[in-house]
Amino acid sequence: MAFRDLHEFIAACEKRGWLKRIKAPVSPYLEIAEITDRVSKMPGGGPALLFENVEGSRFPVLTNTMGSMERICLALGVNHLDEIGERIRELMKLPGPGGGLFDKLGQGLKLLDVAKSTAPRIVSRAPCQEVVLTGDQVDLYQLPVLTTWPKDGGPFITLTNVITRDPVTGGRNIGMYRMQVYDKRTTGMHWHKHKDGQRHYDAHQGSRMPVAVALGGDPATIYSGSAPLPPMIPELMFAGFLRGEPVELVKCKTIDLEVPAHADFILEGYVDTAEPLRPEGPFGDHTGFYSPVDLYPVFHVTAITHRRDAIYPATLVGKPPQEDVYLGKATERIFLPLLQLFLPEVIDYNMPPEGTFHNCVLVKIKKRYPGHARKVVHGMWGLGLMMLSKCIVVVDEHIDLNNYSEVFWYVTSNIDPRRDVFFAEGPLDDLDHASPVWRFGSKMGIDATRKWPEEGHPRPWPDEIEMSPEIKERVTARWREYGFEEADT
């Protein structure tokens, strides 16, 4: 099911009992954040929250939008996130050995058909331009932008689709970058060094760079801005693939860019690459710590357009779990087939919320030769933004990666620290505060697989304790006879 806009998604959530409307007056300064933080830490992620009476603004605020497994699946049109990975796996199927010309042609036509059917299309009129504000009418303070933590440098726009274009190739990028509101017409633009927004900024050096920011719209497009896509896959085509139909775009009023037609708000403007960078922050980030003040480009707003019934969407980040847990889990499941394309021995992986995604990755493999786990760790460090992973742990194929107790037991039991813990140096996330040098430091790999003699373990490896199957079956069959309820087993 493809949602046309955020309003349709809200209605679907409310119908299922997954939305709570809050009619009491609330402040965008810390209060909405505190309410959202408590709700997002409820079992299962709590409901989406629609604040209908926000002090200082006529627009309602939506938070925790996709902050549960049920809502992220609904947003992406699936019952389980692995369904999207399976669709991608089917598209990536290459003709096997001995495959003829027609096999290759058939697969090529299938990919071409998907590309054509999911490519965005331009429309002449759009809900996001029902109200157009330019010149002296531009006032970011009319938006209920949240200040989420006490030491934040100010209010921050968070759930963004920031749209830029490569001046050389013309390729479009959409990224989810935070924006500190400085005044009525300017914000910071928090482009990390490793992200495509920063790459476009570098390519525009010496000129004004048109930038548009979409807030709201259909949930698949919102999510696509957070997805670490390879450069050859445009975010809007990916959103169309997720939705099963193209994303509609409309031309901006004051800059040469196209934006999602069904967004709630559009901020049009530019970043002057010749302008000095400006201090931005602090900001209470998804790591659970404040990221410090640093210098970033300034975004100048030339127009604000919006729907008449616009809803302002915001995401809260801080100590996990928060809504970004579910956005991250979507990325984890969707991109497993792409990871396996390069590392086919990987059976599955898990990025625990407590590891804030780039701090810890658990991987299970089908081990085939000595040193296989080390090969996988180094291979993952060479894949896109996986390069930022600070700790990668590899276990054997029979281990349940979702059972953290089981994983911890295997890891602590199976390693000899001097032999099985190894280090490398390389790029780290902008937000990592523990490395002595910004964006660069050490990373750790842990080989927690069963060791072979060739890996420096001459002693016999012990068998794991396991009850015989016939006894397990007998006890299961007689469980009620022992006086237990079936739920106890």
From TrEMBL:
Q: Does the keyword Amino-acid biosynthesis apply?
A: no
Q: Which residues form the 3-octaprenyl-4-hydroxybenzoate carboxy-lyase-like N-terminal domain?
A: 10-88
Record InterPro entries: HBDC, UbiD, UbiD-like_C, UbiD-like_N, UbiD_Rift_dom
Q: What is its EC number?
A: 4.1.1.98
Report the leader peptide range.
Answer: none
Q: Which UniProt keywords apply?
A: Lyase
Give a yes or no for keyword Ligase in this entry. Answer: no
Q: Which domain of life is it from?
A: Bacteria
Name the Gene3D superfamilies on file.
Answer: Single helix bin, UbiD C-terminal domain-like
According to the entry, every stretch annotated as the 3-octaprenyl-4-hydroxybenzoate carboxy-lyase-like C-terminal domain falls at 326-448
Where is each 3-octaprenyl-4-hydroxybenzoate carboxy-lyase-like Rift-related domain found?
A: 123-320
| One MF term in the entry's GO annotations | 4-hydroxy-3-polyprenylbenzoate decarboxylase activity
Q: Which family does this protein fall into?
A: Belongs to the UbiD family.
Q: Which PANTHER family match?
A: 3-OCTAPRENYL-4-HYDROXYBENZOATE CARBOXY-LYASE-RELATED (PTHR30108), FERULIC ACID DECARBOXYLASE 1 (PTHR30108:SF17)
* The protein's name in its UniProt record: 4-hydroxy-3-polyprenylbenzoate decarboxylase
Identify the species of origin. Answer: Symbiobacterium terraclitae
